[in-house]
Amino acid sequence: MPPCDWLLVGTKSTGNAALGPIISQAAAPDAKVLLLQNGLAVEDQLRSVLPDSLHILGGLCFVCVNRVAPGVVAHEAFGAVSIGYHSGPAGDEASRMAIEACAALFKTAGIDAPVMANLQQARWQKLVWNVPYNGLSALLHTSTSQLMTDPDSQALIQALMDEVVQGAQACGHALPPGFAQHLFTVTQSMPDYRPSMYHDLVEKRPLELEAIYARPLAAALAAGFDMPRVRALYQALAFIDRANRSANEE
């Protein structure tokens, strides 16, 4: 395979440490690497194992999909990919051009691809949904529709969302007013969905707890704000994840 100018990384963040040699071998000089993953600081993790000559872009997928068989992906709803520049040898103008070129490739394929001015803020915005729905679906073995029809789970979801919004604020990322309520309302009307963490648990794969929970918790705490409900959810999921991994190793 010839060296690639663009590389699209859609693996789980749990395997990022092993990606450096693979990407470096496939990448052309000055290549752009688009990381399509959930969670916080996933680009930082990849940056540490890649040459400085490569550009890293971050992508946030607003889509309901799951892999039902090797090479078979079920698409249930939505489909936009938001794109932002993380790091590399580009200055401001060159980084803007890289983002726009990436967005243009997606749009040519018929995929909506908004450009993000602040990648870290956008990652916090995605966490407002990922933290409650991914974690609770795995912990309670349930789906979004069931979570959204029970008053107790509804209250817990909104409390978790509010904590993430406040955590983002503490870290210097003020989210748009009413953003959490908007996501809550959208979820009420979307098709029934089991998020990726539910499927990872069922398939006995490692859960993406570091990127979705541990790093946001640490970042908010370093900024002077604790998220006790998010921490409790993380601790419960960590127990399940360890048990799941142990069973998988036997």
Could you explain how this protein is built, in words?
The chain has 250 residues and is an alpha/beta fold. It folds into 2 domains: 4-109, Rossmann fold; 119-247, N-(1-d-carboxylethyl)-l-norvaline Dehydrogenase, domain 2 (Orthogonal Bundle), CATH 1.10.1040.10. Helix content is 53%, strand content 19%. It is built from 10 helices and 4 strands, in the order E-H-E-H-E-E-H-H-H-H-H-H-H-H. It has a 4-stranded mixed β-sheet with strand order 1-2-3-4. Belongs to the ketopantoate reductase family. Residues 2-87 form the Ketopantoate reductase N-terminal domain. InterPro entries: 6-PGluconate_DH-like_C_sf (IPR008927), 6PGD_dom2 (IPR013328), ApbA (IPR003710), KPA_reductase (IPR013752), KPR-Related (IPR051402), KPR_N (IPR013332). Residues 118-239 form the Ketopantoate reductase C-terminal domain.
Amount of helix = 40-55%
Distance between the termini: 38 Å
Q: In the CATH scheme, what's the topology name of the largest domain? A: N-(1-d-carboxylethyl)-l-norvaline Dehydrogenase, domain 2
- CATH class of the largest domain reads Mainly Alpha
Question: For the largest beta sheet, what order do the strands appear in spatially?
Answer: 1-2-3-4
What's the average pLDDT?
A: 95
Structural class: alpha/beta
Most strands sheet: 4 strands, mixed
- Poorly predicted runs are none
Radius of gyration of CA atoms, rounded to a whole number: 18 Å
